[in-house]
Design a protein that fits this description.
This protein has 378 residues and is mostly helical. It has 2 domains: 1-36 and 319-378; 105-318, no CATH class. The protein contains 17 helices and no strands. It has helices spanning 3-34, 39-53, 56-67, 71-83, 90-103, 106-119, 125-136, 139-153, 160-178, 184-198, 204-217, 220-228, 235-244, 252-279, 283-296, 300-307, 317-377.
């Protein structure tokens, strides 16, 4: 083997070694980038290595959730552990079960339902049921619309998002009754967005978008006139006046948002929807969260807790993933270049050997007549 071929073979060996080291990382990077539009698959690809590198993340998350008085989140971590076949301490799982049972006790549920009905603020199923009940009976939306509308009339600081959501909610409530309840998930979704806004659990980007959308669906002068004389003591009259100021043709985006929030609530619970609204920077993020919730169900809250916005879309890590793929591609080019060099040098070596062999044969053939002639002369 000549020196050129030896160098090419050495280069190929080095490229193969580097490629073998890069392949797992590059394969994972390619899979993650390919799953960019599939939040369920994207979360799987990120959660698995996270739990492999630190299996205690699940038990730690459970303890933190229990300490924070959030057994629903603790139960979500248990569901995530089961999905990944991770063993948990039985006493810890039992504490989660007991905490959930205490939260679902009739007295506790009744108290939270009443709180949601009166205050219009929800953070779990019971309080959301109370809030939605209040909105379905138009009490909650009228209360919010009249309060914010009067601020608007007086020139005071007004939460136009709550005002717009209340107006949209009144229109959707009417549709819910007409459609025999088929619009109820949208109604619940809009209520939850409104509640998230009140308690500061609406992402800034989503709040800005929703605020712009809310302005479009409300005829401000007509609404001011409606709320100037409106009162929760005259719910039917006030609701009719506020609905008249609602531009249904402009409400498509808000209704889609409410529908997506309703999908999350159905699969991941009220707190799962609130977690999603806190992370979301726009309606597309909420739609992704809905797809994640539909695929992962009870695991959703734990996934959002561990990955944050990374559960919904690729964030800053996309550049690093691309670097792994670029490195693997360069290594592949190196392997192909080494193979090309080996092939070319081996082919040239074979050609040279053939030429030398033919030259020797020709020289031998030319020498034979001279030998024959010399022998005959002798």
């Amino acid at each position: 083997m000549n020196r050129g071929i030896g160098l090419a073979v050495a280069g190929l060996a080095i490229s193969i070694a580097i490629g073998a080291a890069l392949y797992p990382h590059a394969y994972h990077a390619g899979a993650v980038l390919d799953a960019a539009d599939d939040p369920a698959r994207l979360s799987e690809l990120q959660i698995a290595p996270l739990l492999q590198s630190d299996p205690t993340r699940i038990s730690t998350g459970i303890e933190e959730a229990l300490a924070a008085g959030d057994p629903d989140l603790a139960d979500s971590f248990v569901a995530l552990a089961n999905a990944h076949h991770l063993a948990l301490d039985e006493s810890q799982v039992q504490r989660v079960t007991e905490a959930l049972a205490a939260e679902k006790a009739p007295a506790s549920v009744a108290k939270r339902f009443a709180t949601g009905l009166v205050t219009g603020q929800a953070d779990d199923v019971a309080s959301l049921s109370g809030t939605v009940a209040g909105d379905l009976f138009v009490f909650g939306d009228i209360r919010d619309a009249v309060r914010e509308g009067k601020h608007l009339v007086m020139g005071e600081e007004t939460d136009r998002l709550v005002l717009g959501l209340a107006a949209a909610g009144l229109a959707v409530t009417a549709a819910t009754y007409v459609s025999a309840g088929t619009a109820a998930p949208v109604r619940a979704g809009l209520t939850l967005v409104k509640d998230a806004r009140k308690v500061g659990r609406l992402g800034e980007g989503l709040a800005a978008w929703a605020g712009r959308s809310a302005r479009e669906v409300v005829d401000a002068p007509m609404l001011q006139q409606a709320v100037a004389s409106g009162s929760v003591l005259r719910p039917g009259e006030t609701a009719t006046a506020i609905r008249a100021a609602f531009r249904a043709e402009k409400a498509g985006a808000l209704v889609r948002l409410g529908k997506d929030v309703g999908r999350i609530t159905e699969k991941a619970g009220t707190r799962g929807a609130l977690d999603s609204l806190k992370l979301a920077e726009g309606p597309k993020d909420v739609a992704r969260a809905a797809r994640l919730a539909e695929a992962k169900g009870g695991q959703t809250r734990a996934i959002l807790k561990l990955l944050g916005r990374g559960a919904l879309l690729l964030t800053a890590g996309a550049f690093n993933l691309a670097l792994w793929l670029f490195g693997a591609l360069m290594t592949l080019f190196g392997m192909l270049g080494s193979l090309k060099s080996i092939t070319e040098r081996a082919t040239q070596s074979a050609i040279d050997r053939g030429k030398r062999r033919r030259l020797r044969q020709a020289q031998a053939a030319a020498a034979r007549p001279e030998l024959v002639a010399a022998a005959s002369c002798g």
